[in-house]
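User: For my dataset I need records formatted as: sequence, then structure tokens, nothing else. Please produce one.
Assistant:
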Amino acid sequence: MTPHAPRSRNEILQALAAFRAGFVSVGCFSAVINLLMLAPALYMLQVYDRVLASGNPMTLLMLTLMVAGLFVFMGVLEWVRSLLIIRLGTQLDLRLNARVFDATFEANLRDPRQSSVQALADLTSLRQFATGNALFAFFDAPWFPLYLAVIFLFSPWLGLLALGGALLLMGLAWLNQRLSREPLAEAGRLSIAASQQAGGNLRNAESIEAMGMLGALRQRWFALHHGFLAEQNLASERAAALGAWSRYVRLALQSLVLGLGAWLALDGQISAGMMIAGSILMGRVLAPIDQLIGVWKQWSGARQAYQRLLALLQAQPPRQSGMPLPAPR
């Protein structure tokens, strides 16, 4: 057998580092898009505080044309960002798929009982995670302090309410991760074990049929599959409960900030435009956190796939190139 090369440190991170410029570009697009997300709140602020006060329809028309142009520009940026991240995911897959295939081949040479398709499925999971909405959630989440700072400029009371809501949603996100991490990990382990056993049974279908072992082997597979379903349902039920609470908190906070804004407007501390703009910005503060809670299950699956791939690649280093031979005659 051809000798192996020295074990690499982390081939997946090396592959990701090769596309660092692309991910930086995605981050720049995300920055501009999140800055443009301030446009609806500023538009409402100007309409309530300037247009309604002056009664000038030309001001309303110009403001509307400006914000409509910003929305078109933001839509184009969203489209370009999506195309870019899809291309990055494809290039990442092409960079790693041959290496993962070879490592899977080496692992099956040493232990034929291992699943021959799990590593390729894990690579597909990583690519889908890198091209889906989950990655956008991680790019957009760091920008919520900007919206929070603008709310504080309107009123410290509105800012404190928004900050409390953001901290509450962060606590729910942490609790979701804490409660669903172990069931998801156990479900992944049982799913792989059930797939390996089913694959081994199918490869020996004739022998199993001749010996009349189908019923017993089906029961062994069903025990693993039933355990997988139980752990998967447990994690999904916990995530669903916390997701429902997070949506309730988000809706309640948007109404509460509007009510607090109305009270402050009646007291003369803020204007009516600030009240409406604060309500819109409250949604922008809470949306990235709520989105992170929604995609946490995808993040957990991608992390487990990454860990399995990393273990496989480190256990099966790439082969060293042998001596080139002339073409046979």
